[in-house]
Amino acid sequence: MPKLSSSMLSNLILLLPLIGLPAIYAQTINSTNCPFRGDDRRYIMSMFAIDGGQNTEVVVSDTGLAYRQGDFGNRNGRCIEIVDRNRVEVEQKSKWNLLVLYRNVTTSGEIYFCMKFYWQSVNVIQYQLSGFYSTNQADAKAKCVLFEMNNRYSFAVVGFSRNYQSYNCKTIFEGVYWFTYQLKDSSRTPCDALNNEIKACQRAGSQERDNWITRITWGLCPGLAEMKDQGTQTYYCYGMWTDTNNNVYAAVGMDQGDIKFKYRCLVTRKDQNERSILYRWGMTVDADCSTLNSPDTSPMKLVLRPTLDSAEQVPQLRPGCNLPKNFTGVWFYPAEYQTDAQESRYLMAVVTEGRCDVDYICMHFIARHHNIIRFRMSKPVKHDPSTADAASYMSNRFREVCHWSSFTMDQVEWTYEYFVLNPPVPVNCPLQGRYKFNMIGQSAEKYYTKIPGGVTIRPRVQVRCDSLNESDLYACTGENKQLRLDVDRCMKLDHNGRPLSEYDVPDNILTCVGYWMEDAKSYLITYDPDDPVVGNFRCWIYRRTGLRTYRLSRSMAS
């Protein structure tokens, strides 16, 4: 048997503990020596956390670790080896992760421990801390790998940086929200004070403080236990991250004397689908993020609804002009485009619930025709509070926003859109008479035989038409405001000379809403409340091709 050298023996000692590990772990260890270099220096941070219910300070340097927790939980470690980094796992907490082996320098002998770091932002690092290993370095390294493997699904403590770096709040909150909140330990219904408000308004390109703070105003409700957060508080955005269960986590900090209540964690979900445009968040009442599992089981539940800023947005909505009186009503907007001549222009202030900006746009309207208002909308121009007090501010805004060049992006194509009164008032159809027709196009868009309100296509299948079936489209005297359409009408008559019962009922009834001519084309809008495909309104282009023939083209959507 050959004699083993000292180098061969050390390699053997290193490999033996890895024999029992899964192949993927034994083959993909990416280890380097200390100190931290390159991208690994992102983990150098002085942090505060609540670990196991106790205030904890963690200081990570490029060569060591200081862990302070009360009088008996202290550790001082010297960095021995970076065992693994940026491991890709199914239960990924962060694509930036680091497994480090430390040697405890507060005790004599070979005492090791390891820590797994998850980098979430410049202000937030999550970590998992192992126990002590009283063994040699090679065995401690193998136990670190086992620790990493066994704690993939375990909670990682959230550490908040003691030296805040600016982080854009847009990834967490953006806009203006009214909200309700409820403490988990409170039996009271959610607090819905009128002055509850979350405001996070960032200016595009700004490098100032407005981009990394969120202001939350907590209203008071009778019977609600007093919180640390009262009145208007300023929260600094620390970071945001997600997990594989569609949970979105965020970290914020505030100016609070008690460090335990200085930091907070929040959670929401990506898959929220509220019809009322509600956003549900869960929030901690202190820096202990281990209590945060979902928005509905959090220490504090928040329900957000987009709203307007009463101080800056609402005053800009005071009316300064009147639209034509016949514009009154509820209008349908099908987002189709036409071109036409100019008419009248109106300067309007525009705000969106839940957004911070106040914009001015110019609405250029064509006079109402039938049930249709055609218009075009200019590019938005932001409100400038610094010059809003000037006497000529609004007139200057009008000249700028309503200039002809504001209505098109390339200053060539002038596009118009239109509103349709909903529900409309029927008008006489431009097509009168009775016609047979053929349909060409996608099968899903074609009309088909049906009995309105019936269960079957043909209620009397035993009736034979003897090949007397024809398509039928008509708008006749007394019914000239509707186009009645039958795809396959039975033209056979009974002994009294009348159509056979239900076969006299048309398949579709299209109400004419409005029509006009533009660019040598005739346009028609019809209304069918029973349209099963895309909506009630359809746009048609029609052209007369002969004394008794027409060609019609119908839109696929509204």
UniProtKB/TrEMBL annotation:
**Pfam assignment, any one:** DUF7043
InterPro entries in the record, alphabetically? DUF7042, DUF7043
Q: Does the keyword Signal apply?
A: yes
Give UniProt keywords alphabetically: Signal
Using the record's annotation, list all stretches that form the DUF7042 domain. Answer: 168-304, 426-555
GO biological process terms, alphabetically, are:
wound healing
> Span of the secretion signal?
1-26
Q: Residue limits of the DUF7043 domain? A: 342-406
Q: Which PANTHER family match?
A: LD32918P, LP06548P
The protein here is known as Sushi domain-containing protein
